[in-house]
Amino acid sequence: MFIFQLGSRREVNRVMTRPQFIENLQQFFPELERLPHADTLYRLLRDIDVEHIEQAHADLIRRLIRDKKFLRFLINNCYPIAIDGSQKFTRDHLWDVNPLQRTHGKEENSHTQYYVYVLEASLSFRNGMVIPLLSEFLEYDKGDTDSNKQDCEQRAFHRLSTRLKQLFPNLHIILLLDGLYANGPVMARCHQLNWVHDRTQKQNPAHRLGMNSRDFKPLHAEKPT
């Protein structure tokens, strides 16, 4: 419902039972015979632990990688993973302890706004196909509360990179990053994890897919002693 912006489970059933929809899925999953009813999916997702969904998704990606489904789209034998942040929604009231906050306006016209911000890692291939991998939420209490600094993309990057390495420890990765990440701690982190990196042009959204492959400069990690 969320991916296809459908308004009801009945509409989900109508779309997901179209022959072309199932045929497209069978390109990736030849063993797929039919799709579950939307009400069945609802009952499953209602009660399942969110972490189990993430693990199932990672297992699916590993299976596609193992079956060499993405082999023709690699860059220098590396899997291109774009990492970028995005704001999801805002509220004028605090509904939870985790949202970040900011002040709009000045003096008597100022008001506090609360918002959800997520750092996301996605496989971003040269043919335009993008497959989400992991999401890391920025949370208020993960910032430096003693210095009155909120959580930020830089902090979230280190948490996300740790999870990404744990889920795909042997995957050859090239990170597609914008200029925000052109700093010592991020580059050192890439070096530590033996990841290649490419800094894309932030002002041109099309470059976020990392098509400027002629400019790639690999980071060669030092061998541990």
What does this structure look like?
- The protein has 225 residues and is α/β, with parallel strands linked by helices.
- The chain has a domain at 72-215: Nucleotidyltransferase, domain 5 (2-Layer Sandwich).
- 31% of the residues lie in helices and 22% in strands.
- It is built from six helices and six strands.
- The protein has helices at residues 9-16, 19-28, 38-47, 50-66, 153-167, 184-193; strands spanning 79-91, 100-104, 111-124, 130-137, 173-177, 196-199.
- Strands 1, 2, 3, 4, 5 and 6 form a six-stranded mixed sheet that branches.
- Strand 5, helix 6 (184-193) and strand 6 (196-199) form a beta-alpha-beta unit.
- The longest helix is centred in the first third of the chain and has 17 residues, at 50-66.
Helix content: 25-40%
Q: DSSP strand (E) fraction?
A: 15-25%
Shape descriptor = globular
Specify the CATH class of the domain at 72-215: Alpha Beta
Coarse structural class: alpha/beta
Give the overall pLDDT as a whole number: 83
Rounded to the nearest angstrom, the radius of gyration is 20 Å
